[in-house]
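Many introductory courses stop at the sequence. We go one step further.
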Amino acid sequence: MATDHPVIIQGGMGIAVSGWKLARAVSSEGQLGVVSGTALDGVLVRRLQLGDPDGDVRRALDAFPIPEVAENVLERYFVEGGIETGTRFKARPMHKLALTRRSQELLVTANFVEVFLAKEGHGNPVGINFLEKVQIPTLPSIYGAMLGGVDYVLMGAGIPRAIPGVLDQLAKGEAVQLKIDVKGATEDDDPYNRFDPAEFAGGTVPAVTRPDFLAIVSSHILATMLAKKIESRVDGFVVEAPTAGGHNAPPRGRLELTETGEPRYGDKDVPDLEVIRELGLPFWLAGSYAEPEKVQEALALGAAGVQVGTAFAYCEESGFAPSIKARVLEMSRAGRARVFTSAVASPTGFPFKIVPIEDTMSEDEVYEVRPRECDLGYLRSAYRREDGSVGWRCASEPVADYVAKGGSEAETVGRKCLCNALMVNVGLGQIHRDGYVEPPLVTSGDDVENVARFLPLGAETYRAADVLDYLLPERLEPAGT
């Protein structure tokens, strides 16, 4: 377990928003840079098809410890000079309960690449963030990150009780399994995803080190359970408030909506920090903590520091497309940036924060003309078919398909395809066979309203270091003061 923890954890945001460039920038400054582990196999294959113009992905793959695996990935997906403008991306395999060899190779190498590049050029720790609800890619993704030397694994959006034990086993080179949530599964079913490092390596298993595990929680009850009632160790917590961006934990109790149609959070949703503090593990506070006095407040409450996402999301090093960053910063400067917490947008059923922006999926007219299609499938859920096999459905897929798979039509109302939209946000959007171009959908925390405060006087952009200077003003004090 690490003993010298960072004060600032940079949040693991979206698909490739918290990419390796941002994580490397933050870690290089002595705080904890975190890459997003979501959909990295899809990110990898699209970066390779765009020709990897700076050679970063290929440089990382050259360092992959199982060369033949890296060669397989390059052979399948790399396009010298990049695909022509207007060309569809070649798809990667959709995930299934028993992952194919090709899927495993993509997941392991993609996570290795992201962590390797984030750690390049400095000696400070780097983390990776996973979503518990995106279960199928988890085991090979964690292994790939460990091959890359990741120092922290963070996971939320669910109850990640199995992950600390998985880290223990992978660090020993042992085979691991993860129980998958399969609706309707019986005691006779075998709803497990499995991964064996020895089988994957085809020989000598590369040595890896167990990273620290930080569970992202919204309640002291969950923190207590993870700290006391699982066999392996949890190394700390990120305690996230509903003002944080992306997916939020649902309110406790019966769902109630505000006058504007957003989930209503109350006293029951405020974690008891005294209980968390008494667990004796380091914790960080998250959700609207991007102010120097809020950092000091968190430290005074016994926290090791804070996690900050939105402030970093619009800096130069983040993965958001420059056009999106420019629009949001201008909206913030003009006092027009805000977020809407939708109770229905995400096919997962979790509340999801959306920045209303013209010509994005935040607008009903844009959402309604998009053909319903599920071709990435990261947020699909598993269900048991009548014959005992495992099927997959997504509340954002065509309504008739979802209903035919046993889903309710009511569950499809207002659901948006986050997988495709978030790919667009980082310049990796798909073009459909009929020429339809996927639109973006921007997610942020409540702090987006004032994110323009990080802009230096007269500047149009800011850097990750500017955020750290703002949050930790002592960084700017002359030595000896």
